[in-house]
């Protein structure tokens, strides 16, 4: 029995998201690696060097995201995914065998380059495959798989930390080496899955694009009304885009509608880093250590934290296409702000080294878990969902590429600054994230329109015609319903055609009787 179309789309997207596991795993594992006794004994890194171990990865990812925009447009979505996985394999091998910090920097930079390709192209690929009704669920898999990677990393690092002695480099080499496995699986199998139908149609492969749409939505039936309606809409949109839209990155800044979307996407990606997530993710041993929690307990609590994040991400996948994007983003930032206010107050009231208040320690742990839950069911997944869906076909790879570059630029900055700030200003560093979460919420309340369940080809209409100040708009006034009208027309034609065929068969029977 063939799989229902939406289940098939979901499963294809799940496999593509294996690439996101690599990013999530690295986010989770590097904090534990640089905190391990053997790593510190072997390399004796300063605070700035520890920051560099983290930041060269995200710096490499910045350039990977930049190049992936070109690769996604010219090579296709699948080949770009495969290229990113192969690059990551090389970088992962270099990290695992590192004999010096310079060696480790090179491996992490190359691995980051591969991750930059992957995290840019995967949600874009997923969005172009998915039905509008499940697009949020499908592109939200990016953050869910990040969570799986982080979960595996946390417990792997905890296990190697407590089971290998400080004299054994397996404490950090084994966790770093495991990330090679999913990269190899992704590189080996991605070409077995369908190419984006929108990319195929955009590159003149109309018949192949139609067959791919039919495979995704109708078990291969190219005459299915939905397939016919969506194929015609994509063709018309791409024809218009070829005549009017961006042929280079520069033109994203010239078209008012494209520039509006670019500002929104870059703001989302920058805002996510300024929620404080990377500071907590990379340097939890340092942060927890500030309040007197030992490293082995920190790694265990981070493992629990990863489980909480995964539950939150699963909830987002289940409900995001019902509750929508806009208020989820606003509420998430406000929730993050509250948790950082509490964390800041705890650190200010119970300074590290001057108190052994167990309640304060547990209060800090719990508020970190609450923050992680809030972030993981709101801002984290939405930072991939919204950028992948707001652009049109001609600008999608370019626009998402710039957005991801901004994300990695801010990620690199936070990765480099956090250990230095922790050492010099302590709890006052958290005030930055309190303020940023508040300003994030205000910005998205003012400027982010709702995009749930809107077909990709109708985003251009929304961002061209809707007012910049979103609270004054009525969303119903900007519903185009173009795909719905095309579907009705396709169903009507199919019904008329079926009726004619039935009449012809009836007439033939009468002739035969005569």
TrEMBL record:
<feature type="transmembrane region" description="Helical">
    <location>
        <begin position="303"/>
        <end position="320"/>
    </location>
</feature>
<dbReference type="InterPro" id="IPR003663">
    <property type="entry name" value="Sugar/inositol_transpt"/>
</dbReference>
<dbReference type="InterPro" id="IPR005828">
    <property type="entry name" value="MFS_sugar_transport-like"/>
</dbReference>
<dbReference type="GO" id="GO:0016020">
    <property type="term" value="C:membrane"/>
</dbReference>
<dbReference type="GO" id="GO:0005351">
    <property type="term" value="F:carbohydrate:proton symporter activity"/>
</dbReference>
<dbReference type="InterPro" id="IPR050360">
    <property type="entry name" value="MFS_Sugar_Transporters"/>
</dbReference>
<feature type="transmembrane region" description="Helical">
    <location>
        <begin position="427"/>
        <end position="447"/>
    </location>
</feature>
<feature type="region of interest" description="Disordered">
    <location>
        <begin position="491"/>
        <end position="514"/>
    </location>
</feature>
<keyword id="KW-0812">Transmembrane</keyword>
<protein>
    <recommendedName>
        <fullName>Major facilitator superfamily (MFS) profile domain-containing protein</fullName>
    </recommendedName>
</protein>
<dbReference type="InterPro" id="IPR036259">
    <property type="entry name" value="MFS_trans_sf"/>
</dbReference>
<dbReference type="InterPro" id="IPR020846">
    <property type="entry name" value="MFS_dom"/>
</dbReference>
<feature type="transmembrane region" description="Helical">
    <location>
        <begin position="262"/>
        <end position="283"/>
    </location>
</feature>
<comment type="similarity">
    <text>Belongs to the major facilitator superfamily. Sugar transporter (TC 2.A.1.1) family.</text>
</comment>
<feature type="transmembrane region" description="Helical">
    <location>
        <begin position="144"/>
        <end position="164"/>
    </location>
</feature>
<keyword id="KW-0472">Membrane</keyword>
<feature type="domain" description="Major facilitator superfamily (MFS) profile">
    <location>
        <begin position="12"/>
        <end position="452"/>
    </location>
</feature>
<feature type="transmembrane region" description="Helical">
    <location>
        <begin position="176"/>
        <end position="193"/>
    </location>
</feature>
<feature type="transmembrane region" description="Helical">
    <location>
        <begin position="327"/>
        <end position="350"/>
    </location>
</feature>
<feature type="transmembrane region" description="Helical">
    <location>
        <begin position="362"/>
        <end position="387"/>
    </location>
</feature>
<feature type="transmembrane region" description="Helical">
    <location>
        <begin position="79"/>
        <end position="96"/>
    </location>
</feature>
<keyword id="KW-0813">Transport</keyword>
<dbReference type="Pfam" id="PF00083">
    <property type="entry name" value="Sugar_tr"/>
</dbReference>
<feature type="transmembrane region" description="Helical">
    <location>
        <begin position="7"/>
        <end position="31"/>
    </location>
</feature>
<dbReference type="InterPro" id="IPR005829">
    <property type="entry name" value="Sugar_transporter_CS"/>
</dbReference>
<feature type="transmembrane region" description="Helical">
    <location>
        <begin position="51"/>
        <end position="72"/>
    </location>
</feature>
<feature type="transmembrane region" description="Helical">
    <location>
        <begin position="399"/>
        <end position="421"/>
    </location>
</feature>
<feature type="transmembrane region" description="Helical">
    <location>
        <begin position="102"/>
        <end position="124"/>
    </location>
</feature>
<keyword id="KW-1133">Transmembrane helix</keyword>
